[in-house]
Design goal:
Blueprint: H1 4-12, H2 15-24, H3 29-41, H4 45-52, H5 56-63, H6 70-79
Length: 94
């Protein structure tokens, strides 16, 4: 028996499962990547918020996967040198 992470990785290799997962799950693969970068950098939420111009509470909610907002995701991606996702279930039309 593998870990939950291994099980999820196997399930996410199925494009249909992945599309559904990323549509309904607050913590999509992109979100998890950004959260991993925040932790790896040892970033302080208040300082990170100041640097990217987002309220600390919004970053904390994003990191807890309590609320994923595309604007927060996009700004964090840019900050960590990642491309913001072009497709996101939470991206509002502009």
């Amino acid at each position: 028996m593998g870990t939950l992470r291994e099980h999820l990785a196997g399930k996410l290799s199925n494009p249909e499962f992945r599309a559904g997962y990323e549509t309904w799950c607050e913590a999509c693969v992109g979100t998890m990547e950004v959260i991993g970068r925040i932790h790896a950098a040892g970033a302080n939420v208040a300082e990170l918020a100041r640097q990217i111009g987002i309220e600390p509470q919004r970053i904390a909610a994003f990191m807890d996967a309590e609320r994923c907002e595309y604007e927060v995701m996009a700004k964090l991606c840019v900050h960590f040198g990642l491309m913001p996702p072009e497709e996101c279930a939470r991206k509002r039309p502009v």
